[in-house]
């Protein structure tokens, strides 16, 4: 896909991978729209990047309706949707872990949100000569991390959904469905979890944009390709190594 002179919507674009990807795509001559729940941070990011901003909570049905109406009215040439917004909580399963409530919040943002927004924007994306949906999965989509248990669940669900969506849309549309599988990326969110040795977000953004341009169904960032290869070769050993020192 030629990522120049396209209109692109990035959810959660006010920080991290979303912000870095918006920067790369803007530099390539695209019209980029970013969303975020924190209005002040969103406006700051928009000013820094020189992009359009729309306050938006992917878990809120009314926000979805309003966002889709605004996109149809003001950005009807939208051709790329990047479902980037995500949340995750570090904890371990067990008695009094509160796993249900944590999982509910994570699934609302990481799984149900992208499904609802994507479906609502499909009619508009179908009108374009070429279009793409990009879902931010994770290396934990392949195998779980015990300190991010229900986050891993939500990303595994998104991975499965993305495959079904890709196969379905390929039958009668020009919409490509890409999945991004980052390993550890250095963002405000990962640093808050005490994970400070990740790949820089701008490096990840470059890989993501190149993957979309190359029409790669699955875009592996950082160590994920090696982790996937190890899992396919020997799942039990790969999962054990992935969680070494954490159990």
Structure description:
With 247 residues, the protein is an alpha/beta fold. The chain is 49% helix and 17% strand. It is built from nine helices and nine strands. The chain has helices at 16-27, 39-49, 61-74, 99-126, 149-169, 188-192, 201-213, 224-233, 235-242; strands at residues 7-10, 31-36, 52-55, 78-83, 131-136, 175-182, 185-186, 199-200, 218-221. The strands form two sheets. Strands 3-2-1-4-5-6-9 form a seven-stranded parallel sheet, sandwiched between helices. It has a two-stranded parallel sheet with strand order 7-8. Strand 1 (7-10), helix 1 and strand 2 form a beta-alpha-beta unit. The longest helix is centred in the middle third of the chain and has 28 residues, at 99-126. Belongs to the short-chain dehydrogenases/reductases (SDR) family.
pLDDT < 50 stretches: none
| CATH class group | Alpha Beta
What is the molecular shape? Answer: globular
Main sheet attributes: strand count, strand direction, barrel closure:
7 strands, parallel
Spell out the CATH superfamily.
NAD(P)-binding Rossmann-like Domain
SSE arrangement, N to C: EHEHEHEHEHEEHEHEHH
- Report how far the terminal alpha carbons are from each other: 42 Å
Write the CATH architecture name.
3-Layer(aba) Sandwich
By secondary-structure content and strand pairing, the structural class works out as alpha/beta
Which sequence of strands runs across the widest sheet? Answer: 3-2-1-4-5-6-9
Strand segment tally: 9
Radius of gyration: 17 Å
Portion in helices: 40-55%
Mean pLDDT: 95
Number of helices: 9
Strand content range: 15-25%
Keywords: Oxidoreductase
GO molecular function: oxidoreductase activity
Family: Belongs to the short-chain dehydrogenases/reductases (SDR) family.
InterPro entries: NAD(P)-bd_dom_sf (IPR036291), SDR_fam (IPR002347)
């Amino acid at each position: 896909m030629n990522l120049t002179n396209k209109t692109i919507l990035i959810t959660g674009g006010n920080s991290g991978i979303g912000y870095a990807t918006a920067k790369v795509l803007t530099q390539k001559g695209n019209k980029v729209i970013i969303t975020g729940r924190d209005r002040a941070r969103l406006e700051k990011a928009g000013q820094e990047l020189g992009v359009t901003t729309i306050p938006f909570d992917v878990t809120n049905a009314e926000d979805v309706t309003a966002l889709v109406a605004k996109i149809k009215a003001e950005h009807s040439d939208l051709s790329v949707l990047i479902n980037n917004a995500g949340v995750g909580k570090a904890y371990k399963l067990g008695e009094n872990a509160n796993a249900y409530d944590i999982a509910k919040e994570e699934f609302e943002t990481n799984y149900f949100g992208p499904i609802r927004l994507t479906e609502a924007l499909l009619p508009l994306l179908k009108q374009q000569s070429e279009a793409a949906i990009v879902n931010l999965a994770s290396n934990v989509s392949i195998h779980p991390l015990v300190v991010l248990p229900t986050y891993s669940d939500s990303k595994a669900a998104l991975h499965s959904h993305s495959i079904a969506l890709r196969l379905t849309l390929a039958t009668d549309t020009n919409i490509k469905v890409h999945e991004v599988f980052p390993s550890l990326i250095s963002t405000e969110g990962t640093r808050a979890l005490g994970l400070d040795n990740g790949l820089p977000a701008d490096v990840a953004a470059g890989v993501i944009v190149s993957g979309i341009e190359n029409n790669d169904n699955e875009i592996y960032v950082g160590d994920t390709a090696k982790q996937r290869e190890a899992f396919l070769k020997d799942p039990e050993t790969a999962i054990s190594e992935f969680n070494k020192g954490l159990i």
